[in-house]
Amino acid sequence: MILHRRRLLTATAGLAGTALLGGCDRFATTDAGRRTLGAGEDANLYVQRLLMSGTTTAREFPESMISPWFKPNGSIDPPDRAYKAMAAKNFSDFKLTVDGLVDTPLSLSLADLRALPSRTQITRHDCVEGWSCIGKWSGVALAEVLKRAGLKPQARYAVLHCADTLEYASADGAWLKPKDPSAVREAHAAYVQLAAAGDWGGSPTGTQDGDSNDAADDGSGGGRPIRYYESIDLFDAFNPQTILAYDLNGKALPVSNGAPLRLRVERQLGYKNAKYVMRVEMVSSLAGFGDGKGGYWEDRGYEWYAGI
Amino acid sequence: MTASPAIDAPDKAAPERIGRQGRRLIYRHPLPIRLTHWINAAVLLVLLMSGLQIFNAHPALYWGAVSTFDTPALAITSEESGGANRGVVYLGDRKFDTTGVLGLSKANGVEADRAFPSWATLPSNQDLATGRRWHFLFAWLLVINGAIYLIYGLVSGQLRRRLIPEGDQIRDFGGSVKEHLLLHFPEGEEAKRYNVIQKLTYLGVVLVLLPAMVLAGLAMSPGVDAAWPWLTELFGGRQSARSIHFIAAGLLVLFVVVHVALVLVSGVFNNLRGMITGWFSIGRVRPAGEEAR
């Protein structure tokens, strides 16, 4: 009897260990696994929204706590020619497009944006990797911009289309991930057409401008540039601390930190705070953008709700 | 097989019976305690391994609100030394070579720069997104399982009766330390209750370490920080909370190592039977003749 139990216990422990070490990795790659693991995100979104109101803001810090160096991460020098052309002219011809489910589509220059009521906030930026920096951001509340555009009743999300290409999708759908910055530049020269300001991002409804840009890239060698994008819902879009920032620590936003304009959505992790924002598109659903998960990193397995 | 008691009545004395070979068996662990114990063990293993995966994304710790990248309190990295790559751990200014385990280790036979080795992380390859999903789902399981354990423990009186040291135990604290060091484990009546070190350790893990773990985890969340800024402040800032979360994880690993070691040396099958079936042997009934003498 003892021996049986002994064998049973050993077998159970061994089985459990093997199942855990090998099985967990496989489980996470199945659809059911992904759905199961996603339950944690749903619970976090639900509970955190219970704890917060629309006007709950992230903590703001004194000037003395500003980090001496605000670590740039992700894209720090977009390889896109259209972006480089804009940067060379100090973003004087930059226009932010606000469109989608709005009453009045807008096209706003940096001067237009700076003329709107501004907000300055010293907040902590928390990267999904684990580090934090404190910076002073000045910009215009996204709510101010959206109020001027006027939302159609179906609008539920703001999609931020960005200027920076992170990788290329080949014609057969495989990812062509650039290995180093020089490879990015070469691939770029081969594939990427100049995108005129205002043409950023494909639209699910297929706006001519957006699609013709991508189609041209496909025709030139099969590598469609995959640019950064992000999305937030109206709960975050209308938070007073959610701003389109043009200044960092009292100076114009440097290229490495997202010039000329980046999103600050302070109650969420760094990757939600899209840099190089070219276009804000109001939509009713996130399907049709990228893989439909609501952002570049979301399409690669990260949570859409990044409040934790 | 004798039937288990129908209910885990909160009576003073645990049910007792005589087993095979004259073993005196007491019903030591009621079903809710056994279930939550094993669920907790599995959940903590997933949380530890996925936590190490998350740590690997930025393998450095700091104190305060933000990261002081040049002066981490702890960093696990790899660096070239004499033409070869070495895994190193920096603890403040002190440097330790940890090649093979920390900083530089083999994953599938290939040398890789990673803070914690492949066998210690979930998933085994470098995949922060999936690691986070495991971690947050199992964090919920930890909290729900822990709440069930605590509510049951409080309502049934188990927590108070089993874990609060009794007066005589506190007075003989030194004696208990000595017994532990000599690996003497009590039998008979004394084996019906935990010894004082055991009680204090379990209390510390259940009421201090695990709650601190959960709270420090929450303190790192920008959403929770917006809703409850006092929590992050309580830990001295977000990066301090991250460091405390890491240290608390280390203390839990230490607890588990000692716990398992003591389970092994104090009668592994009796202990396991206790935590699986509930019945724990406190020794043998003496033969009648012996008792008469």
If you had to describe this structure to a student in words, what would you say it looks like?
The complex is a heterodimer of chains A (308) and B (293). Chain A has 308 residues and is of the alpha+beta class. Chain A contains 8 helices and 11 strands. Chain A has helices at 2-27, 31-51, 81-88, 110-115, 142-149, 181-191, 208-219, 234-237, and strands at residues 95-100, 106-109, 118-126, 132-141, 157-169, 175-176, 224-233, 243-248, 251-252, 262-264, 277-283. In chain A, the strands form 2 sheets. In chain A, strands 1, 2, 5, 6, 7 and 11 form a 6-stranded mixed β-sheet that branches. In chain A, strands 3, 4, 8, 9 and 10 form a 5-stranded antiparallel β-sheet that branches. In chain A, strand 1 (95-100) and strand 2 form a beta hairpin. The radius of gyration of chain A is 22 Å and the shape is globular. The model of chain A is unreliable at 172-199 and 202-222 (pLDDT under 50). Chain B has 293 residues and is an alpha+beta fold. Helix content of chain B is 53%, strand content 16%. Chain B contains 11 helices and 9 strands. Chain B has helices spanning 31-57, 128-156, 158-163, 167-171, 173-181, 196-219, 222-227, 229-234, 238-265, 268-276, 288-292; strands spanning 16-18, 23-27, 60-61, 74-81, 84-91, 94-97, 103-107, 110-114, 279-284. In chain B, the strands form 3 sheets. Chain B has a 4-stranded antiparallel β-sheet. In chain B, strands 1-2-9 form a 3-stranded antiparallel β-sheet. The longest helix of chain B is centred in the middle third of the chain and has 29 residues, at 128-156. The relative contact order of chain B is 0.14. At the A-B interface, helix 1, helix 2 and strand 4 of A face helix 1, helix 2, helix 7, helix 9 and helix 10 of B.
